[in-house]
Each structure stands twice: as C-alpha cells, then as structure tokens.
Amino acid sequence: MEGYPLWGLAGLLFGTVLGVVGAFGGLAAFIIVLVLGIVGFLVGLVLEGGVHLPQMHPRRQ
Q1: How much of the chain is in helix, strand and coil states, percent to nearest 5?
Q2: Coil, strand or helix: which one is 17?
Q3: Max Cα separation, the chain?
Q4: pTM over 0.85
C-alpha cells in the first residue's frame, strides 16, 4: 500500500465518527468516543511495534 494515504483516511474516518457522535450523541458521547479512539490508536501502535513500552518509562537506578 505504498503511496496510499492510509493515515489520512484513518484520520478522516475518525473525524467523521466524532462529528456524527457529537451531533447526535451529545458531549458525553463525544468525549467517550474520543478517549476510546485514542486508546485504540495507542494499542494499535504498540501492536505494530511503533511504541516500545519499556522505553516509555525511565529506568529506576
């Protein structure tokens, strides 16, 4: 999928979902979808190997 704007499309999809939820679900639903979307994004990064969890926390000496 080289040259295909995957992250741009993912951002467009996420923004569209947030817009629909914000329009029909209210502020509480908007916040819930936003938080769960961020958590899902971080889990996806960890599973792809983009974030190494031991490097996120400083080592104790």
Answers
A1: 75, 0, 25
A2: helix
A3: 51
A4: no
